[in-house]
Amino acid sequence: MNNSNISYHAETNGIGLTNDLLIEILTKLPLKCIYRYKCVSRSWQRLIADRYVATRLPLILSGVFYRSGPEDLKLEPRYGCNSNGCFYETDFSYLPFYHNSSIIDCNNGLLLFYRSIPSAFHVCNPTTKTWAALPKPRGNSQLSILAFDAYKSPYYKVVCFSGWQAQGGQLEVFSSETDQWVEHSLNWGVDTNSLSASMHYFDGVLYVLALPGHVACIDLEKMCSNVIELPEDMKQDTSLGNSGGFLHCTINDANELRIWVLKGMKWALKNKVSVSGILKWNGDCRDMSSANFLHHGQFKFLAFHPKEDVVYLWVMGKLMSYDLCKKRFGLVCELGTEKERVQVIQIWLFPYSDNISNCLA
């Protein structure tokens, strides 16, 4: 048993159950219930906030997707969460700025909204239905990123790229800890024109894929940048992620998905997954090559499990998991009857943490 300051056997929390039994019950409940039960009493709040308990709670799964159809005059990013095996779109009608703002980024359960006229940023926590209006940055944002790590801190950052040079540019960084924007000038170490829109925030660093085969690493704490080489040149579907405390890279050439892990300054090939094998497991027998599936957005790598050797894939309207050690597929959830018209852009899997509920308190 974990040597916590909480006595799991002695304390009953006023309902006649030991904490061990109460923990077993809590781990079977949806995360929204967990947030509500924190308000029952101080002893319940301490129990749920304990790290031992938090590690046993189910991961929170959320994602951003597009839904296309005749009724959609323009593609607007949507946000949804997994519940009971289905992926449900979140209703944001409670937000006063929702109808004239768009979701431009999401990170570990927080959403970044932007309105162009007049310019305004909002950060929203859809789990707790809380939000914050950010002060206006000095420059005009050309690209904005939300950086939040629920493992480390209740504070988040918003990074706005406001100017470009040949191998660098200007950016403004907002910190919720100070409630201020700070301007910086950085040299990326690669040509600005080579930077892609594929980025990943991990352990205080914003990683940006750069053509043909580099990663610009922008340290948001030290405000400096360096470059590392990818293990191979980028393909159409190349992604960055993290798992087990290490940066990972996936490269999909329509034949196989190659998974690389960065240890120190060296990449090591961790696994290969056959794309045709995935499509066969899914039971799709249509006359379409794996390259066409990739081109039409019907097969896509989405995320790594934060701790285990499991990856998450988007295959024909289904969110699937693949255990790299056991070589086993699993169905996580579907997007209902309209799944053929849905394209998932990105998903996040992260554990319950008090930092998530406290970041906009």
From TrEMBL:
- Residue ranges occupied by any F-box protein At3g26010-like beta-propeller domain in the UniProt entry: 99-334
Gene3D superfamilies in UniProt: 1.20.1280.50
The family database entries (Pfam families) matched by this protein are listed as:
b-prop_At3g26010-like, F-box
Q: Which InterPro entries match?
A: At3g26010-like, Beta-prop_At3g26010-like, F-box-assoc_interact_dom, F-box-like_dom_sf, F-box_dom, Gal_Oxase/kelch_b-propeller
Q: Which residues form the F-box domain?
A: 17-51
PANTHER family, A to Z: EXPRESSED PROTEIN (PTHR35546:SF130), F-BOX PROTEIN INTERACTION DOMAIN PROTEIN-RELATED (PTHR35546)
Q: Which NCBIfam families match?
A: F_box_assoc_1
Q: What is this protein called?
A: F-box protein
Task: Report the source organism.
Answer: Dendrobium catenatum
